[in-house]
From TrEMBL:
Residues 536-599 form the Purple acid phosphatase C-terminal domain. It catalyses: a phosphate monoester + H2O = an alcohol + phosphate. It comes from the Eukaryota. This is Purple acid phosphatase. Its EC number is 3.1.3.2. Belongs to the metallophosphoesterase superfamily. Purple acid phosphatase family. GO terms for molecular function: acid phosphatase activity; metal ion binding. It comes from Aureobasidium namibiae CBS 147.97. Residues 278-506 form the Calcineurin-like phosphoesterase domain. Keywords: Glycoprotein, Hydrolase, Signal.
Length: 607
């Protein structure tokens, strides 16, 4: 599939990369040998498909262009907290020809201030020159407004530049000042994508309209790396395949019309996500574009705080039957097979390695909180200190790991075949390259310092969100590694709750002390626990926002462990957390109808 388009493409991509590759750091010692543009569709492996498209795979851009043939456009706008203000991130297919700007003010009709920022880009595959202007992002603009008053509504607008249309006048509300005693509600969600997540999106949007403070998405964001699902053969253990036989839609029937009234273009097989297939783009970057544009109604209104999950690491995680993906990415052969799975770090296009996309498409307050980028950071909001951690890289035996773990003997860098497709990081320092020692990691050292600084008289609550759980009835070895890295620190500093996802279900655990001991004294009743700072924490696995891979289920012969208080393997949705000075109430909101699937109240124990 190396054709003329491919050659043109690479030329364009290299030119685009030249001005700035500031946040992309990938190794290129071995050549990429796959197709110029990997497309997960054997029937029509071209960038724009067969041209008929799927209605669901076109999402309105954040700004509606004023002409029918725009040459540039603001397709995504996404807010995030910075101390004392707001970060406004926006995306366009082409450069702006000037530093990015945001006009703002406290009155809708008087945006008399201008904030100026900076832009980044990376050589994405394919470049936006090959895609519709309103469906593609390649330039990423970062503008901050600081020195704002807490808990105050501000209005903002992105001015036109180099062909873009000026945005509507939008608004946000700044965070409550640390120590402000008033109550507020946040949304916590994990493992979303845009397939099976219709209900989550709808009720999250309603919550954003109803005064939600912010949304906190614990990784596995767009499921972009499932672009190749449609070219893997079906297997019992993997419903995501070109027959899509066991994927499920939100809440079961009746299905939203948009899933059903979208006939497949002639010749296409139903591939993923629904009975009609075609619910997922066959291009990695398009999945990102679609998900971000779909979420604009939320991310333009409330800060959308993200952290890394395994689906953000690279273009793929593993191969399927007959090693179809190895044949495609390593050998540039479609419809083929390879004798063994030989995916490695160099199998993905350069721009699809080492969390590159994740680092460009969001901008979290890592630097402002002494952390690192979008990987680990913290922020205060009124009564609570919120901490995002990276459970994918940057701790001992992390699920994705740095080259230093691949090397043998006296090597300083791994050979091609010693690498893995998801090799990533480190994003922080590892003292002495001692990757087996948690305390050598910058992330660990930062977390200890960050938690030690918390003033509990101002922020009595501490909540931490990481992608992977420490405990679950679905046991796995990574859980022990996450515990070894972080559990003792979190208990020592009296963290109230640890939220995670990764497992695609809702599972609420009892308050747990070190090594999974159940703190029975802190259980008031089935839906009420006392906090027990320094002794136990509540754990919730909240991985049911949606996503193409459907629900996780416990095998018939696997027991529900006694640490598990509630297990829901059926409903999609997200959770809301309402925080007051004496209680924190967690409620699972079902995507099917917005009803409450589980409720837990945490009470501050009087000391
Ligand atoms: C793959 O095989 C199918 C069926 O034989 C054929 O229709 C299609 O053109 C092939 N695709 C490619 C990219 O070779
Ligand atoms: C302005 O937009 C055009 C596409 O409409 C693009 O080709 C050009 O590079 C952009 N200019 C700058 C300075 O980025
Ligand atoms: C898809 O599913 C149908 C019906 O279950 C089956 O007949 C067919 O062989 C499957 N095709 C592939 C390529 O797995
Ligand atoms: C692997 O390829 C063989 C030979 O083409 C085929 O018979 C078999 O069904 C394939 N297996 C899978 C899991 O697709
Ligand atoms: C590294 O070790 C190999 C044997 O394991 C040896 O042949 C080679 O000379 C060593 N290289 C260096 C630079 O020490
Ligand atoms: C990933 O990027 C980081 C910097 O952001 C760099 O330190 C690290 O070496 C890179 N790792 C790999 C495996 O590319
Ligand atoms: C937890 O378990 C580990 C390994 O089983 C053990 O080494 C450690 O002492 C235990 N810690 C506590 C506090 O019980
Ligand atoms: C508490 O939960 C247990 C187990 O799910 C159940 O058997 C019991 O009836 C519940 N108690 C109350 C008061 O709801
Ligand atoms: C829970 O089960 C573990 C063994 O898996 C056991 O050691 C522990 O005592 C049980 N805890 C309670 C409170 O039943």
């Amino acid at each position: 599939m190396k054709n003329t388009i491919g050659a043109v493409l690479f030329g364009t991509a290299l030119v685009a990369a030249a001005p700035s590759a500031s946040r992309r750091d990938v190794d290129t010692r071995f050549p990429y040998t796959g197709p110029a543009i990997p497309v997960g569709d054997w029937v029509d492996p071209t960038v724009n498909g067969n041209g008929k498209g799927f209605p669901r795979l076109v999402e309105a851009p954040a700004v509606k262009p004023k002409t029918s043939n725009p040459t540039n456009n603001v397709n995504v706008i996404s807010l995030a907290y910075v101390p004392g203000g707001m970060h406004i991130h926006y995306q366009t297919p082409f450069g702006l020809g000037a530093a990015p700007q945001v006009q703002w003010g406290t009155h809708q009709d008087n945006l008399n201030n201008i904030a100026v920022g900076q832009s980044n880009t990376y050589a994405r595959t394919p470049p936006c020159s090959l895609a519709p202007v309103t469906q593609c992002s390649e330039h990423f603009h970062e503008v901050q407004i600081t020195g704002l008053k807490p808990n105050t509504k501000y209005w903002y607008r992105i001015p036109a530049a180099n062909g873009t249309t000026e945005s509507q006048t939008l608004s946000f509300r700044t965070a409550h000042a640390p120590g402000d005693r008033s109550e507020f509600t946040v949304a916590v969600l994990n493992d979303m994508g845009y397939t099976n997540a219709h209900g989550t999106h709808k009720y999250l949007g309603n919550a954003a309209d109803d005064g939600l403070a912010f949304a906190w998405h614990g990784g596995d964001i767009s499921y972009a790396d499932d672009w190749y699902s449609g070219i893997l053969p079906c297997e019992d253990s993997w419903p995501v395949c070109y027959n899509g036989s066991s994927t499920r839609l939100p809440g079961g029937p009746p299905y939203p019309a948009e899933y059903l009234n979208a006939p497949l273009p002639a010749g296409e097989v139903p591939n993923q996500g629904g009975p009609q297939g075609g619910d997922m783009s066959v291009l990695y970057e398009s999945n990102w574009d679609l998900w971000q544009q779909w979420m604009s109604d939320i991310t333009t209104k409330v800060p959308y705080m993200v952290l890394p999950g395994n689906h953000e690491a690279a273009c793929a995680e593993f191969d399927g039957g007959n090693n179809t993906l190895t044949a495609y990415l390593n050998n540039d052969k479609a419809n083929s097979s390879a004798p063994k799975s030989a995916l490695n770090y160099y199998s993905c296009p350069e721009s699809q390695r080492n969390f590159t996309t994740f680092q460009h498409r969001f901008r979290m307050p890592g630097v402002e909180s002494g952390g690192v980028g979008n990987f680990w950071y913290s922020f205060d909001y009124g009564l609570a200190h919120f901490v995002s951690i990276d459970t994918e890289t940057d701790f001992a035996y992390s699920p994705e790991w740095p080259f230093v773990r691949d090397i043998k003997g006296n090597e300083t860098l791994p050979t091609e075949s010693q690498t893995f497709i998801t090799d990533s990081g480190p994003f922080g320092r590892i003292d002495g390259n001692n990757w087996k020692d948690n305390k050598a990691y910058e992330q660990y050292q930062w977390l200890a310092k960050d938690l030690a600084k918390v003033d509990r008289t101002k922020t009595p609550w501490i909540f931490i969100n990481g992608h992977r759980p420490m405990y679950s009835s679905q046991t796995a070895s990574y859980q022990g590694n996450v515990r070894n890295a972080f559990e003792a620190l979190m208990l020592e500093y009296g963290v109230d709750a640890y939220f995670a996802g990764h497992i695609h279900w809702y599972e609420r655990l009892f308050p747990l002390g070190r090594n999974g001991t159940i703190d029975t004294a802190s259980i008031k009743d089935n839906n009420t626990y006392y906090t027990n700072e320094g002794k136990s924490m509540v754990h919730v696995i909240n991985g049911m926002a949606g996503n193409i891979e459907s629900h996780s289920t416990l095998d018939a012969d696997q027991p529900v462990l006694n640490i598990t208080a509630v297990l829901n393997q059926r409903d999609y949705g997200f959770s809301k957390l309402k925080i007051t000075s004496t209680s924190a109430t967690w409620s699972f909101t079902k995507g099917a109808d917005g009803s409450v699937g589980d409720k837990l109240t945490l009470l501050k124990r009087n000391k």
